[in-house]
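Researcher: Sequence recovery benchmark, item below. Answer with residues only.
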């Protein structure tokens, strides 16, 4: 095929691409948020939360830790102020006081970083205490993907609470791409949160997770269904599980709908759970496999909590 024919075919497709699917073409607006800039902000945040692990060793020395923290916090503010401003334009198309609003939001986030650091310190401890393969705090911080995913989610969650649009979701999706762990920024997560292995974990937007909760790989805290408005659009209502304190959920289990998992419960692997269970429950798919026949509860769900739970 000669060059003239090639260019002719290209032009035909240019015409098609330029005139169809315009609903997926970005409207005219100010600069969109920069994924690269947000990644840099998160890199700097990790340096502040875990000094000395990912930068120069002097960053953790008593004589210089405050200096580096101040330098990095200023850079984080500058990056976030610009990206939040872009996010406000992205969300609304126009925002007359976007820069001032973004400045207030960015500095409010800076004020929440000590709280994020505290939460991350409890998460690292929870991961270490529950994993015999983990040898030290340093190993958990430096090499565990869950630490990165939880850091990103906790930062994104605080930005969401402040009212920042679009940016929180970009941040958690970056963590999803890096780790395979998908936690929506809207999820409300307590202290001492641990994810072991992590690949395939999904936590939905309206999930509520208490303290001392541990999830294993492949766990889904998802929605069972959602409501539509009169125009057929999804309504954003609470639709994900509430996980109370001291709950462990093992691999490849799906907990779906606005149900409550009572405190001190254990849910085994490969369980499909769509009903609330009381505190102290033990739901084990393996028990059903051993019986080889479906087990039908003879009484209310409360009678089931020490027996079998697969497929509930």
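Model:
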């Amino acid at each position: 095929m000669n060059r003239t024919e090639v260019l002719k075919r290209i032009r035909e497709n240019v015409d098609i691409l330029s005139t169809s699917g315009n609903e997926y073409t970005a409207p005219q607006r100010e600069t969109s948020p920069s994924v690269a800039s947000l990644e840099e902000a998160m890199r700097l945040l990790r340096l502040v939360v875990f000094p000395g692990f990912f930068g120069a060793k002097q960053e953790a020395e008593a004589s210089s830790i405050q200096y580096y923290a101040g330098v990095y916090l200023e850079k984080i503010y500058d990056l976030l102020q610009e990206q939040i401003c872009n996010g406000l334009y992205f969300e609304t198309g126009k925002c007359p006081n976007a820069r001032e609003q973004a400045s207030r939001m960015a500095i409010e986030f800076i004020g929440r970083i000590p709280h994020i650091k505290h939460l991350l310190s409890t998460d690292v401890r929870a991961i270490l205490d529950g994993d015999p393969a983990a040898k030290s705090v340093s190993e958990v911080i430096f090499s565990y993907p869950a630490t990165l995913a939880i850091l990103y989610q906790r930062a994104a969650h605080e930005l969401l609470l402040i009212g920042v649009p679009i940016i929180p979701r970009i941040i958690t999706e970056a963590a999803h791409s890096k780790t395979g762990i998908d936690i929506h920024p809207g999820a409300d997560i307590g202290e001492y949160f641990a994810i072991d292995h992590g690949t395939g974990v999904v936590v939905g937007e309206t999930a509520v997770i208490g303290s001392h909760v541990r999830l294993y790989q492949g766990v889904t805290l998802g929605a069972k269904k959602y409501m539509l408005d009169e125009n057929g659009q999804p309504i954003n209502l609470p639709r994900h599980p509430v996980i109370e304190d001291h709950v462990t959920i093992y691999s490849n289990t799906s907990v779906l709908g606005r149900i409550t998992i009572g405190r001190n419960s254990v849910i085994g692997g490969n369980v499909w759970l769509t009903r609330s269970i009381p505190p102290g429950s033990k739901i084990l798919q393996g028990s059903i496999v051993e019986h080889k026949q479906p087990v039908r509860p003879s009484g209310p769900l409360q009678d089931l909590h020490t027996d079998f739970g697969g497929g509930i």
